[in-house]
Design a protein that fits this description.
Layout lengths: L8 H11 L4 H8 L3 H8 L7 H11 L24 H11 L16 E4 L3 E5 L8 E8 L17 E8 L2 E5 L2 E5 L4 E5 L4 E4 L6 E8 L5
Antiparallel strand pairs: 1-2, 2-3, 3-9, 4-7, 4-9, 5-6, 5-8
Helix pairs in contact: 2-3
Length: about 210
């Protein structure tokens, strides 16, 4: 069963960039890539790697979660939740039920983003008013979170649980091999990278909280 459609990531990025009055070259300089790569990402001719996507969203002050919002007319910045998150979320449910992804998300209802370097993100759900990426992540054989092999860092706290395959996590100066049943959690500001050196896909559930920049 096919996954649910998601608006083009590149179009969302371009819209956010223009809303902030940032030029294409300025964004490219900010994240340390070529202007032609940013242009190719925005026009859908190329997909960003995980590390490039986080760099772009950090530079634009938006969340990765906002790129999945198919029902939104514009890319929204992640809200700052004041007071009770539960109360805020319930209010959001009532105000705009179209943005609610859940409480149950079937296999064929998951929104999917294909990234560069053999990585696929499937959105497992979203509670309005919260700043969380709740994802089923697949690293295909040879897949990596960084096409150039560099380490990435971004805001937030990262939690992951591997369900299938084998994944190598570089975290700071240490390297760990994750196998089914292994779990990780760390501050995402710690330089890190994931890669799949095996011949089988590596699949896991990832939960990144508080990764947006205000």
């Amino acid at each position: 069963m096919p996954s649910a459609a998601v608006p083009p990531v590149g179009a969302r990025i371009r819209q956010a960039r223009l809303e902030r009055g940032m030029g294409l070259r300025a964004l490219a300089r900010e994240i340390g890539v070529s202007a032609s790569l940013v242009s190719q990402i925005e026009t859908g001719k190329s997909q960003p790697s995980v590390s490039t996507l986080y760099a772009i969203t950090t530079a634009l002050g938006i969340s990765v979660e906002s790129l999945f919002d198919a029902s939104a007319d514009t890319v929204r910045e992640s809200p700052v939740v004041a007071g009770s998150t539960v109360v805020h979320a319930l209010a959001a449910f009532a105000a705009d039920p179209g943005r609610r992804i859940g409480p149950l998300v079937g296999t064929g209802e998951r929104e999917t983003i294909e990234l560069d370097s053999g990585v696929v993100w499937e959105r497992l759900g979203h509670v309005p008013g919260t700043d969380v990426d709740f994802l089923l992540v697949t690293y295909r054989p040879g897949g990596s979170s960084s096409s150039g092999g560099g380490l990435m860092r971004h805001a937030g706290t990262e939690h992951g649980y591997l369900t299938a395959g084998e994944l190598v996590l570089t975290l700071g100066f240490d390297e760990h091999v994750l196998r089914p049943g292994d779990a990780v959690c760390f501050e995402s500001t710690t330089p890190h990278r994931y890669r799949n050196d095996s011949a089988e896909p590596a699949v896991g559930v990832w939960f990144v909280a508080g990764q947006s920049v205000q």
